[in-house]
Prior knowledge:
The complex is a heterodimer.
Chain A: H1 2-5, H2 11-20, H3 22-42, H4 46-50, H5 59-73, H6 75-79, H7 101-115, H8 122-148, H9 152-164, H10 166-169, H11 180-200, H12 203-219, H13 224-239, H14 245-262, H15 271-274, H16 279-300, H17 304-331, H18 339-345, H19 349-353, H20 355-358, H21 368-375, H22 378-392, H23 395-413, H24 418-440, H25 451-464, H26 483-510, E1 519-522, E2 528-531, H27 533-544, E3 550-552, H28 558-565, H29 578-589, H30 592-601, E4 604-610, H31 621-635, H32 660-664, H33 666-672, E5 685-686, E6 691-692, E7 703-708, E8 714-719, H34 729-736
Parallel strand pairs in A: 3-4
Antiparallel strand pairs in A: 1-2, 4-8, 5-6, 7-8
Helix pairs in contact in A: 3-8, 3-9, 5-7, 5-28, 7-8, 8-9, 8-11, 8-24, 9-24, 11-12, 11-14, 12-14, 13-16, 13-23, 14-16, 16-17, 22-23, 22-24, 23-24, 24-26, 27-28, 29-30, 29-31
Chain B: H1 3-22, H2 26-39, E1 43-44, H3 47-54, E2 61-67, H4 76-95, E3 103-109, H5 114-120, E4 127-131, E5 146-148, H6 157-167, H7 182-210, H8 213-228, H9 231-237, E6 243-244, E7 250-251, H10 262-285, H11 292-320
Parallel strand pairs in B: 1-3, 2-3
Antiparallel strand pairs in B: 2-4, 4-5, 6-7
Helix pairs in contact in B: 1-2, 4-6, 8-10, 10-11
Amino acid sequence: MAAAEGAGSTPVELLVSLGRNQSTKTLLKVIILAIIAAAAVASRLFSVIRFESIIHEFDPWFNFRATKYLVANGFYQFWDWFDDRTWHPLGRVTGGTLYPGLMVTSGAIYHLLRFLTVPVDIRNICVLLAPAFSGLTAYAAYLLTNEMTTSSSAGLLAAAFMGITPGYISRSVAGSYDNEAIAIFLLVFTFFLWIKALKLGSVLWGALCALFYGYMVASWGGYAFITCLVPLHAFVLICMGRFSLRLYVAYTTWYALGTLASMQIPFVGFLPVRTSEHMPALGIFGFLQLVAFLEYVRSAVPSRQFQTFLYVGLGGIFGVGLLGLVGLTAGGYIAPWSGRFYSLWDTGYAKIHIPIIASVSEHQPTAWPAFFFDLNMLIWLFPAGVYMCFQRLEDEHVFIIVYALFGSYFAGVMVRLMLTLTPVVCVAAAIAASQLLDTYLQYKSPEVVDNKEEESSDGTTKKSSKQSSLRSASQPVVGIYNVLSKAFIAGAMTLFLLIFVQHCTWVTSNAYSSPSVVLASRMPDGSQHIIDDYREAYQWLRQNTKEDAKIMSWWDYGYQIGGMADRPTLVDNNTWNNTHIATVGKAMSSREEVAYPIMRQHEVDYVLVVFGGLLGYSGDDINKFLWMVRIAEGIWPDEVKERDFFTPRGEYKVDADASETMKNSLMYKMSYHNYASLFPPGQAQDRVRGARLPDQSPVLNSLEEAYTSENWIIRIYKVKDLDNVGRDHAAAASFERGHKKKKAIKKRGPRVLRVE
Amino acid sequence: MRWLPALLSVIALPLGSFAAKSSSSSAERFQTFHTQAVSSSPLKLSDATYKKLTSAPRDYSVGVLLTALDAKYGCELCAAFQPEWEVLGKSWVKGDKKGESRLILTTLDFAEGRETFMSLGLQTAPVLLLFQPTTGPHAVSSPDPIRYDFANGPPTAEVVHDWLARQLPDRPHPPVYRPVNYVRWIVTTVSLLGLAGVVFKLWPYILPIIQNRNVWAGISLIGILLFTSGHMYNQIRKVPYVAGDGRGGIRYFAGGFQSQYGLETQIIAFIYGVLSFATISLAMKAPRTKDSHLQQIMVIVWGIVLTLMYSFLLSVFRGKNGGYPFKLPPFIVNSIFASPNSIAS
């Protein structure tokens, strides 16, 4: 073995020679990657250890329900699934309006394990799917980075960064069973395959890229990011004069097969040829054919004038094509950018036109602490890595640069898109960090040479390389002379990396591991106290209401009610029908007299509100209330007005100073019904908004309290039936309370003679 | 062209008042004002014409924008909304020459209608009032005008159009028509062509700049630094540049995790930039330096800059997020910028 040959006297040299062996290196890499994958999985298990194996948040509950349906009824049933238990009374064509990749993946794993006679609950597969895929993502990041640089440590660093960076953990902890769980792996892997196809000009790799692109389309709406980034990369390459047959082969293979693959998903269907966000891909496809044709003609006709003519013609055709696209869009043949995508460019658009998009907290712009929180030291290694990409500037480096620019723009506009930025940050930061470490961890120091001798040759290299390379890389590498310098920088970097690991663990443990279905708080003695109101209330619904009792709540809780309580809902997190959501918003924000007919018309049996006033839980319905008002106002501007919910001084208040409209709204009444009776007189207070409430609780006539959970987080009201003797509810309720019906005393003026 | 409508209205006014005097029936009053409106809409009112137009028995609707356009009142909203109001007024009349919608859109400036402002008790401008008809098929019970809410900044003509359309059901609502600005088109085309010509002429000089990697690297890095330091948040939320601390000083850093100031993001971008540049220098420049002493000085200086800046960054972040436990020397005391109430939720 080579290790034996090179075995020197000192253990250090022994170690060095061991690392030079090719097979040892491979073994080491495998071990390191396995450890990284293990670390990636382990750091996502906080919530399972602290709480239990439970599905988190909101959307995962729908995915979980759909997966159960798939496993129980088979694929074809799932494909044609019409769900009449959501969006009552409309229903939802669920099979045609979801991305099935996630459910099919876990269904396949489930059946595989069954086949291997491993008895495992489908819930555990769903809970642990995201951590398992994060290990694969780390590996994909390793592969992608290896395409960028010759240094093998960069790939391993990238894998480690990808595995533990909070920007990715935020969407992939155990229990976070969402589309992003597998989509980020597919995103990184598709990019790797694209780079591979581009480098080799291979149809095989291009087809593989298209295959994984199809899988990505089946999994996540964010596939549009790939659909736009790959053509952009191709376009930038053409503009740089780097058109090659490799590019032509890779791109056309990817586009033709990938588009066909994506059109197999019912939810996507004909969108790839009908909507604007897919047009760049189609346009570049056509443009590439033109460029290829002209390149061919150019190679046959060597005249210089003709070449110029060709380039001008090319530019002209491109311009005409662009104009045609604009014309077709204006004419309505191509759908313009859908609201969600459009709001990425015109950032004020969503707030005015689509409040339902603006209301989601993930769609808010990102403040700088969020970047640092999610990426820590990578955020400043990232620009350095991008700069280093300019050094060699091969086709694949151009990809990283384009991705970095667009990724950081999108992440700045929307918090949620931090997820798409994270892979490129990890890759670029790994390139920077590995270059730094490779330089300063070099065991051998170069010989000190007399620099006066070198002066003359120095000048010539400077001149020759001035044009084509970076200024800081214009001279040849000599290495670091001094051990002290090496120790200082290597020590500092080690310290930073250790802090990075600590930071990631701390952030994951503190910020991203809460299931949000179960809340945890600390008792005064430091022990943990679990607040389980959600599941308590949903369990109550499941056991005490009819199978088909319709529950009205704000859309945030629709998936959870469907998943945990198994009851039909009016609206849920799918938000496909804005008017229906606005109807619920109107019912919540109107007077009882207005809300009751709405609830009757929709056959509502129970109304569920979330109230955090007792516990100080800030994500409750009163804090979301203004969005309900805004969304309802978008449809009924004359009946619901946001202004009326503020005090004359423009404050949003819930105490005695609250506006009349606010006090009479159904949401306010349901939230604070009987709340004051919990406190001694004069001391009722809302701990979220820090407001002292009036002693008199609001009176509810058309609803009655059915259930309130232990900490009052969830309150459920039953909608009263029509009165037996035909009175309105207010009259009936006041009769119940023992008030006599007031006789209207008619004031009679002095009698006058009727004159006609 | 501006003087023409004004002149016309000046000529039309005495005629109108003459006509109105002779017969004050509602239908004829509408006819008179509508004829004026066809030549210049929205119609400019004064105290007298305002009273006449809105007097009680009327079978038509009137939209009055009470505004204060004179620069001395400094009403920005008035100035911002005025062109939109004119677009709306013109397109309404253009689409409804016969007056079938029975709506007249008018403007009353504070300079012309001081008394009206006083009698309505208005303290602010602009105010948009819609007087509904009191007789006729579309009569409403209350004679009081409906007031448009200017709460969300200057609305576009389309928004106000929708509001009017809602208030006036069962009547024609001519769509908003924005005139094509030919001058702007011509100017744009000519300047674009000119620019193309200049680029063509200077192409040999521009080409090296375009092909220079350093330029592109610089542009990319500046873009990335801008976006990752929260520039888009500033654009969208329109945050203040700096804020006072209530004691006459300046607060550079906003308290809390979800907020920031303009200057704050620039400081952060600068810190990121210095850290990146230190990394680049250490990784790329230092190993290319031939002189060993120079190299050592370089490594030590950039290394110190790196550690100092990172330590400072961590301390700034601790100020934003109260519970953050990590620190590096020398900035290990709790951040000097942290305000006492900046514990992040």
